[in-house]
Structure formats: C-alpha cells, structure tokens
C-alpha cells in the first residue's frame, strides 16, 4: 500500500485519492436525502498504474469513516464497495434495505450523472 492523500470533493460527488502527486483514483458518490440521509457510492475507479497499491480499499475505508463522523449510513451500489464492506463488517455496517432501494431509484432516475 502506498501513502495516499484522500480528499472529499462533496460538491463534485467524488472522494479522490492522490498518490505520488497525481490523482490515483476516486469513488463517485452522492448524498441521498430521502427516506433519510446516506452516502451512496456508485463506482470506484483506480488508474491502472496505481492498481495493486491499496488505493480502492483506502477510498472505501475513508468513505465509511466520513459517514461515521457525520452520523449517516453508507448505502453502497458500487460493486467494489459492496465487496469491501462484506470483508470489513466491523467498519462497514450493513445498509438498511430501504435506503438501498431509494438509492437505486435515484440512480435509475438520473442516469446522466453516472
């Protein structure tokens, strides 16, 4: 794993990892408001030259850390984050099924964002 700097660009809906002075990867997410607040990761991207360095895991962990600090759940739609959460249940509480359904409805209604 490399030292990475994680930056939350909430306005752009991106949690970004910077390594070696470059953008190494990101998680695209949005903030769900109904039926309650939640952070919803939609997809994770790591540039090929940074693969295998723990970037995606660092991003997922930081997303859950931010959510815990803000007192909101994570409703993961991103396949990588779903798998990461399953491997780290002590850090990634299971999302309420209603939040997941609402997040899926939002993504379906706004495909231009993804």
Q: Write down the overall geometry.
A: globular
Report helical residue fraction.
25-40%
Order of helices and strands: EEEEHHH
Name the poorly predicted regions. Answer: none
Percent of residues in beta strands: 25-35%
**Alpha-carbon Rg, integer:** 14 Å
Major pleated sheet: 4 strands, antiparallel
| Overall pLDDT metric | 95
Structural class: alpha+beta
Terminal CA distance reads: 28 Å
Spatial strand order of the main sheet: 1-2-3-4
Question: How would you sum up this structure, described in words?
Answer:
The radius of gyration is 14 Å and the shape is globular. Strand 1 and strand 2 (14-19) form a beta hairpin. A 4-stranded antiparallel sheet has the order 1-2-3-4. It is α+β, with helices and mostly antiparallel strands. The chain has helices at residues 55-70, 79-87, 97-109, and strands spanning 5-9, 14-19, 22-32, 38-46.
Main features:
114 residues; alpha+beta; 4-stranded antiparallel β-sheet; 4 strands; globular
At a glance:
By secondary structure, the protein is α+β, with helices and mostly antiparallel strands.
Topology:
Layout: E1 5-9, E2 14-19, E3 22-32, E4 38-46, H1 55-70, H2 79-87, H3 97-109
């Amino acid at each position: 794993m490399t030292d990475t700097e994680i930056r939350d660009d909430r306005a752009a809906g991106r949690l970004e990892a910077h390594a070696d002075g470059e953008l190494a990867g990101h998680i695209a997410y949005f903030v769900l408001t109904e039926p309650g607040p939640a952070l919803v990761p939609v997809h994770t991207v790591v540039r090929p030259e940074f693969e295998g360095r723990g970037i995606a895991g660092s991003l997922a962990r930081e997303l859950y850390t931010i959510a815990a600090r803000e007192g909101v759940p994570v409703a993961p739609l991103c396949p990588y984050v779903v798998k990461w959460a399953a491997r780290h249940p002590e850090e990634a509480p299971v999302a309420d099924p209603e939040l997941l359904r609402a997040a899926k409805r939002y993504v379906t209604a706004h495909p231009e964002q993804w």
